[in-house]
Amino acid sequence: MISSDISEQLHYPRPLQAQPNTKMATSIPLFAKAQLDLLLLEHEAEVSTSKLASTTASVSPATRRTLQSTGHALTGLVLSQVRTGLGGRVVGEFAPDPAIASDETRAADGTPRLGSHGIRVGDVVRVNDTGKKKDTKDKSEDKGAEGVVTRTGDRAVWIAFGKQGSGAKKEDDEAVEELWGKKLWAIKLANDVTYRRMRQTMEKMEKMGEGDYSHFMRVAFGHTTPLPRSSEDVEFIDPSLNDSQKDAIRFALGAQDIALIHGPPGTGKTHTLIELILQLVQRKKRILVCGPSNVSVDNIVERLAKTKTPVVRIGHPARLLPSVLDHSLEVLTQTSDAAFAKHGRGVNAEGSMMS
């Protein structure tokens, strides 16, 4: 592995190119198998703690209240409004049911308010009809409508339904329509999207033979030596960079396989990353930027947007900061579709991919 430190507080020797140790090389199939086992344990724990494994629309009112008090549900709702937004998704506004609202839960003007709950923006939820009978023969009716919370307030919660594209799927649209005039509750679901993606990747790696390994995989798992670093003159875009940050950028641009920029908090790693991205864009490179959280990636998008760099933010609009929504894939797709329909032509543009 190649590494560089950007901290002015720490003084390490010049970055050295790692040398492979075949005795320490990691078995890729064994690594993938171990990750699959750990992923399964993690997912099972998430499902069990979500209290949803056996929960259906027909649970008792007492159980629903218990789930709300523990942060897993929100009861006593009615569908008050439906609109289209967030990249073509159907967005439903769910307000407290005025028929069951108590004086304690009403605002000064008499408007019913939601009780305390643990539903947050970005949560995956299922909206069910509390009037479902336990002996219903149509099990599909128990599924309810599933969506992502986009906004919460003391008088309503907003939930987006449907998939990416020019609107919700027919079955999603119909499921939302069926909620009108009914007494509803929303229950938080375990989000298995990330789990499924990681599981599929590890399953693919586990089945790979040595002939299927890319050069990058061989380097990352210690099976081969990284390619020699190249050197080039760099004309820096940001004049405020310090010498340590400039060294890190030169080092990363010269690495042909892997570069690791390391430094304690507050030493300017994100600042350095922005310069590195701009340098790569200037060199006509295609870039995928990933982060450990939505906020970390949104922060990168915000900084790049100020430089007028073409950016596409991948992710559910409900989980993005409002300041980066205009750069989201779904919003850009809707805008492009509208432009195409109006002018009869499309727009081709290359940009950095943010995930």
From TrEMBL:
Single GO MF descriptor: 5'-3' DNA helicase activity
Enzyme class: hydrolase
One Pfam short name: SMUBP-2_HCS1_1B
Region (Disordered): 128-147
Keyword Nucleus attached: yes
GO CC aspect terms: cytoplasm; nucleus
Domain DNA2/NAM7 helicase helicase: 241-336
SUPFAM superfamilies: P-loop containing nucleoside triphosphate hydrolases
Amino acid composition bias (Basic and acidic residues), ranges on this chain: 129-145
Alphabetical UniProt keywords: Cytoplasm, Nucleus
Subcellular location: Cytoplasm; Nucleus
EC number(s) stated in the UniProt entry for this protein: 3.6.4.12
Chain ranges of the Helicase SMUBP-2/HCS1 1B domain: 35-175
Main subcellular location of this protein, as a coarse class: cytoplasm
UniProt-recorded name of the protein: DNA helicase
